[in-house]
Amino acid sequence: MLAMWVPELPFQLACGRDGALRDRPLAFLNPESPRSPSLWFVNRLGRAEGLVPGLPMDQALRMAPGLRVLDPAPQIWWEAQGSLGDFLQHWTPQGQLLRLGEALVELQGTQRIFGPLVDTAERMRRELAVRHGWASHGGLSQSATAAQIAAHVEHCLETVEEGAEATFLAPQPLRRLPDLAPRLRERFHRLGLRAFGDLQPVPLPMLVELTNPKLAPDLRARVRGEDRPKLPLLAERPGHARHGWRLQPPRLPEEVALAARCLDWLWSDPRHPRRLALHWWDVDGEPHGWRATPEDLTAPPLVLARRIQQAFLAGATRRLLVREVELRLAWGLGRERALFEDPRNQKLERLEPTLARLRRRFPDRSVLPGWMGQGA
Amino acid sequence: MFALGISDFSVGEGVYPAAQLLRVARGLGYRDLVCWDRGVAGYPKLRDTLEWIHKARELEGLPPDPQWTDFRIHLGCRFSWRGHGYGALPFSDAGYAALNRLLSAQAHDAAPGPDIPGLGAPEPPQNCVLLAEDLSGLDVLLREGFYAALLAHPRRVQEARKALAAGLPVVAPQVLRFRTAEGLEMHRLKRAIAQQSTLIRTEALWDVAEASVPRAEWEVRFPFAEPAVQKATAAVLERIGDWRIHWGGWVLPRPLGQEEADLDALLRERVRAGVAAKFEHPEGEVLARMERELELISQMNFARYFLLVQDIVQALTHKGLPNRICGRGSGAASLVSYALDLSNVDPVDTNLMFERFLTKERKDPPDMDIDFAWDERDAVIQAVFERYGRHRVAMVANHAFFKPKGALRAVAQAHGRPDSELKQLARYVRGWEGGLARASENPAWDVILRQAAALEGHFHQFSVHPGGTIVTPGPMWEHAAFQPAPAKEKVSTTTWDKDGVENYGLVKIDLLGNRSLAVIRDAYAVLGDRVATDPGTHSRKDPDTQALLARGDSIGVFYVESPATRQLQQRVKKGDFETLVIHSSLIRPAAYRWVDRYVKRSRGEEVWEPSDPVFNELLSESYGVLVYQEDVIKVCVALAGWSHYEADLLRKLLGKPDCEKKLPYFEARFRRGCAARGVRQATVDESWDMIRTFQGYSFCKPHSASYAQVSFESAWIKAHHPAVFFASVITNQGGYYPAIAYLGDARRHRLVVRGPDANASAWAFTAEGEQALRVGLMQVQGAIQKEIHELLEERERHGPFDTLDELLGRAKLSVTTAEALCAAGAFDRWAPDGDRTRLMWARLGGVPPGVRPRPTDPFDRADLEMETMDLTLEMHPAALARVRKGGGPDRVADAGYSTNLDAAPRSEAKRGTSGRNHLRFWALVVADKEVATEKGERMQFVTFEDETGLCEAVAFPDAIRRRQRPFRVGEIVSISGKTTLQDGLAVFEVA
Q1: Which candidate in A177, A272, B561, B942 could, as Cys together with A333 as Cys, close a disulfide (CB 3.0–4.6 Å)?
Q2: What region holds the DNA polymerase helix-hairpin-helix motif domain (chain B) (predicted)?
């Protein structure tokens, strides 16, 4: 498992656009306090000069006259994170994007294509530097936790050999354990457990009492470097699609023209959807969802798009703006896509373009694929 | 003809505040307006507004405004019944009671509340003109045998035609809903706010065509133009016009069990007995005052009120509820109250003015405020409900109106704006009123700001008055409608607020909670016979107590513990009762602006030469400074020749938010009165200048005296039994400072503060002898309360625990509680080396093999104590920060708080330097007060503490700007600045 970390991705992006920004203290302006400008992110050179996020800009400029304060560009950062995902997909199908500039990918099984894992990881770092100009760190280990912590070692690829994970993790402070709840961290601290090594010998029943039965086995495996999580696919599976719409600026549900956009998405594939789920997030991050019923799925796109819009309005009952909408689709109504296609299906699938033309021509009528018609 | 006016008290509908509704009705040509809200909550406000219009003219010395002379307001209201909309206009007292009964029954049905005996099911009221909003509703009423008419509208002419054809009565007064498109938009906005929905989703209840039109235009439209309708409408007006609601006459119930007694005689008898008991040899002055008060009380028929309050207090005492009360407010000025044990200050000795409480001319009923220990207050209120019956008792409602910040928040939410934006905006508008202007710097908020500005001052919602309770002679609905209290179980409230209730004539009793009474109660319970038989008098005369107050050593002492009061005490250097009475009033916002003048004169540094001999008579006690509310009254009576009642109106106005608007009318009258009596212009100017600036929250002298009495008792405990005092103060919580500051003060009083202990601590803080204080287990956060109580019970039953294992075996603590108790140090007795880590593993069966937990060092212990108790035992948080983060070579005591100001600062003496007043130190913020400068900028008064002492500091706007955020209590901060000497007191200026 390889943990990749592109440190300070926003600053690297900025430096990529403007070479004059390299090797100098940089910071992004906080977008939330326009009246009294203050710093949002500070790069390491800035931090070395004593700048910290939240510092008023005038004070920061006095402290570090060479400081360049940049306008934030979250959209570009978001796209860069997407590019990182695309890049990783070339190397392995399994992986997970974490915080900005961080990713965890499974390289096991790629040896026959790319050679030894260490070489592959090095090549990935090099290629990332060549193609995108991003410097990165990497951590290679069988354990996801060990890989993530190893990736913190700067400017190199840190490899943790199999069987040496526990030894590698033992001196690391517990605060580096990703996603450890603050309450638990505090409890461990009170019990005098400050490093991974302190927690490794704690027996499972005791850990259950200290945490909870669900969390304890996983936590024990993580601190001992025995965690081997199955990572999800980086890309959508074949026959699946995910359409995201980030509303900028956020809008009230009534102001979101969802039906028109959904129609575009429904027409993006000639097939009928097999599953359809709508997700949306309010400005405060509250998630909501709606799943289409089988009856909805057989409806013509024009009707289905309207139904999605209605479901969205009925479900968005909070008095709050919506920030993001996402439509998840699985294509191919009426049948699961098997690993090996049977000839009949292939034959019917060849009719899909025709079906698509018919659906576009008669958007308010139900044009169903042959196997659905057979059942009906 | 008349109009039906919908005001902002129709929540979620009405767009007109009272004054605007009156203007609209008059502007459209009406002279009779019926209050047409849902409920009758808005009626007193409408009435009060109209009365002010007349009063303003009178104050200006002008004849009544012909525009308003014959304008009348009638009571009416809308209600729903069986799914139809109706309205009722009572034309007799019985109709009014029936209407109240319906509204109260509906309110109690709609929300969970107490069962009211005799209230019955909601039925349309008899003795009222009933109007149905639609034909089917009229049909339902007629079938049930009620006589009603159809309320017609030009938009529903077919209905009116049908009704007329069927021979049914139809009336068509105009309903004043809104006039313009903005009004309709405001209606939608209010609807969205009330329904907690967004504006875009909210449909208006009203149609554009329902906009109000001038009376003449309305009266040529069908159906009004129909002669039968016109006649019926006129008949309704004639019918309701003959009835006048009871308004202004005092409504006083008799005490329970005294339904037939001669109350004046009974009161006289009890007061004489009380005076005989209180005064060893009552002198002529006392007796004369008693007779004068009794005479006036009898004339005003007010004996029943005193007896009622006494009955309530005595009944509670018999039930063992409050064993200590404090009568305060203007009621404490009465010798009768004192004799009946309803107040604790001798009004003759303290020179309290009875006229502040009751005068012959007084129209609004005076009330009495009685404080109970805070933890007994709810039980006290419930006991009153039970004694007089839930159908006769109600608490008084508060009417909350939209203020700038609330309005902005409500409008922003109706526009679906997120919390983060609201928080950002809250930062903009914090600390000063009218923040809307500054918030408009963000252009995206234009519409929201415009709507919020329009919403300001509109009725928002009901809440409950902190203690106002009324008791009626008969069922409550004969006088007022009432409803279940919002968010308060088993309590009903009136729909009227304090002013409405008073103006109607209902006399309220304020039953309020007071933490210091609980402090004194708890301390006396511990001290037992060490308390003097008459602690009030004893403490007032005790030299140690007076000395303590004189040096401002009053942290924890009731009402005089704030930094401002302590500084005032230090400046004046007097600790006698009379001075404290003045100071506790002087420190209120209204009088505080005169504080420097008062201090200089009291110290003899400035000679007070009254510009007029009259000031010498009136204000000699307070060196020519207006201190009490009575001083305003005295000046107006003496200079302008006003009656006490009239002067009292001005006194009341000075504490109200609309003071600025109404004050010029009083000024005009004051100047006229003074001119008529030949007062010199300079004297008039000076006295009005003092009155004008006496705005805001202020005290009357009896109130100050009552509070000063409690302060003295509390200070006596601090002076003689500090351990008991601090234990009681921290246990009862809610003081001006956090617990850590009280413990710091306890240490400065040479007390040993002992940490929580599983074998020695109780739930509350306790005194261990006279020299030590034990932290109670109540302070341990994170522990489960139930488990702690079980542990204490187990210890009580089977004795203390020998080992930690025994404790864990007997008390069965969860990991969470054991962890919290251990972190707080409650198990330290089993770890002499102070290693709490090892103790924590005990609950888990010991340290497992291979685990080597880090032992706890003193710094860890301090951290754990701060996390679990918000206080430290061995090391001050400021010292901890100093060790960890470095810097801050100076100490708080160097800032010169020490009583010996001449002594060289500790750190300077140590370093061998002197004469430097620029200091840098680490400190804990224990108190902060934010104020606005004249320019509207934010500045703060802050109290810092470290292990060496306290210092008062001021952070000017520049310092706050540099720091980017204000100081907040509980923060540990590194501070630099310089010490300045202000009026003999060291004040630290934050750089």
Answers
A1: A272
A2: 752-832
